[in-house]
Amino acid sequence: MSRIVFWIAAVLSLFVAVLSGTLAGSVPVGAEDLAALLGGESGDPVAATILREVRLPRVARAALVGGMLSVAGAVFQVLLRNPLADPYVLGVSGGAAVGAIAVVLAGAGSGWTMAGGSLAGALFTVAVVFLLAGARRGAGGDRLLLTGVVLASFWGALVALFLSVSQNERLRSVLFWLMGDLGQTGALAGTAAAFVAGLAGLLVLGRSMDALTYGDRHAMGLGVAVREVRAVLYVAGSLLTAVAVSAAGTIGFVGLIVPHAVRLFGVRSHRELVPASAVAGAAFLVLADTAARTIMSPIELPVGVVTAFLGAPFFLWLLRREKKS
Questions:
Q1: 25: alpha, beta or left, given left = phi > 0 and alpha = psi -120 to 50?
Q2: 249 — phi, psi (to 5°)?
Q3: Whether the Cβ atoms of residue 79 and residue 237 lie closer than 8 Å to each other
Q4: What is the rounded average pLDDT of the residues 269-278?
Q5: Cβ of 40: how many Cβ atoms within 10 Å?
Q6: Which of 181, 317, 311, 300 shows the shortest CA–CA distance to 252?
Q7: Is there a contact between 37 and 52 (Cβ–Cβ < 8 Å)?
Q8: What is the pLDDT, as a whole number, of residue 220?
Q9: CA-to-CA distance for 46 and 55, rounded, in angstroms?
Q10: How many CB atoms neighbour CB 59 within 10 A?
Q11: Which letter does DSSP use for residue 110 in this model?
């Protein structure tokens, strides 16, 4: 598939996903209501209000979070030189969630403080993965997977402990958020700014990321400052994961599925893979959230349930494929 055809298909998929996510839901909304939202005379004003205050912010949040998780997955796959790396599988999302909950327990549960706690938890988790999995020495996938599974299990147990013993009513309401909640209210300006900043920085490092996929020695031979680039990627991947978790809770497997799906279309260079993963990840999570809202309507499923049903079989298929290769 040519690059032009791929990008047309990717942008069209995002457009279809956004349109579907905007119109689908327990309250029927039609194209004429979109016209009313834009100031037209036709359409239901109530439906236009639903679109403006509920559907469009939710779709925007899903697109941003999906893009961030997908790009973070691509970053961790470069850092650890392992195609099975993903913020959720490695326990980075769980560490970010624990950091956010710790902030709530401390009585400082504003948006910015939760984002800071999430970032601290994500950075700590990636540091532990680097230390225990021996990523700098190119440890195998089995050791990496074991490290990630152990960390994810530990964070899950810690969250369960917090929820069990705490009398904080707000903390108890965090349970649905932990399974992926895109229906939160609040401004998205900070989330969008972090996404744009992270994406721009990674585009600059595209060629260095390409070199790192072949190993540190190869990258050094090409003049890449390996230690400095790794440090930037380490912070960028953790930052994207932390902001995504603080904005929508723990949503698994997006960073695993999307970069691999993009690579199946022949996209290899990270200067193209990173923005392609952002677009495809946005479309994927918007569609997953639309399915979560409509499959059992009027009951709304956590979007993390949908991504897990899709991601777990994909992970097993990928694990078997890597074992064969």
A1: left
A2: 80, -165
A3: yes
A4: 94
A5: 12
A6: 311
A7: yes
A8: 92
A9: 13
A10: 23
A11: S
Enclosing domain of residue 106: 3-324
Q: What is the rounded CA–CA span in Å between residue 76 and residue 92? A: 10
Which two structure tokens, joined as six digits, stand for 84?
């099975």
Please report, as a single letter, which amino acid is at residue 76.
F
Could you tell me the CA-to-CA distances from 81 to 37, 86, 208, 264, 278 in Å, in that order? Answer: 47, 11, 13, 18, 20
| Residue whose pair of structure tokens reads 């205050």 in the numeric block | 53
Residue 251 and residue 41 in contact, taking contact as beta carbons nearer than 8 Å? no
SS3 29: coil
d(CA 129, CA 136): 10
CATH number at residue 23: 1.10.3470.10
The distance of Cα 56 from the centroid of its chain, to the nearest Å, equals 19
C-alpha to C-alpha distance for 140 and 227, rounded to whole angstroms:
20
| Tokens, residue 66 | 């999906």
pTM over 0.70: yes
Residue 37 host element (H or E):
helix 31-37
CA distance 73 to 277: 9
Count of structural domains within the chain: 1
Binning pLDDT at 50, 70 and 90, where does residue 110 land? low
39: buried, middle or exposed (CB in 10 Å: 19+, 13-18, 0-12)?
Answer: exposed
